[in-house]
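Form P-L/3: holo structure prediction, ligand guanosine-5'-monophosphate.
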Amino acid sequence: MGKTIFSKIIDREIPADIVYETDNILAFRDINPQAPVHILIIPKVEIPTVREVKGSEHAALLGELFDAANELAEKEGISKEGFRLVFNCDKNGGQVVYHLHMHLLGGRQMRWPPG
Ligand code: 5GP
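OUTPUT (holo model):
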C-alpha cells in the first residue's frame, strides 16, 4: 500500500501549515477548513482507522492527541467558547484519509446532528 497524504506531510514530502509537533504527534491546518479553526491532529505512527486503536497499546498516544487538542484550542483562542473534536471512521463515518486523525473545529457555533 502506498503512503497516505498525511504520511507525506509527516515526511515533509508535501507542504502543510504545521502548527504543532512533538516526537509522536503532528498537527496542521486542514486544506479545506469547515470552521474558522480547523486543525488535524495526527499520530506520526501509521494507524489507519479508529478500529485499529487499542486502549492497551495506544492509551498514552491518545492522551497526547487530547493534550495537543487542548493546547491548540487554547492557542487558537477557542478554548473558552468551546470546540468540537471529531474522528471519522470508514465509509459511513465519512473518512477520506486512512491515517488516524482528530479534527479540531472551532470559532463558530456547531450544530447537531452533523450531516
Ligand atoms: P476525513 O474525511 O478523512 O476525516 O478528513 C480528511 C481531511 O483531510 C479533510 O478535512 C481534508 O480537507 C483534509 N485534507 C486532505 N488532503 C489534505 C492535504 O493535502 N493537506 C491538508 N492540510 N489537509 C488535507
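COMMENT: DSSP finds three helices and five strands in the chain.
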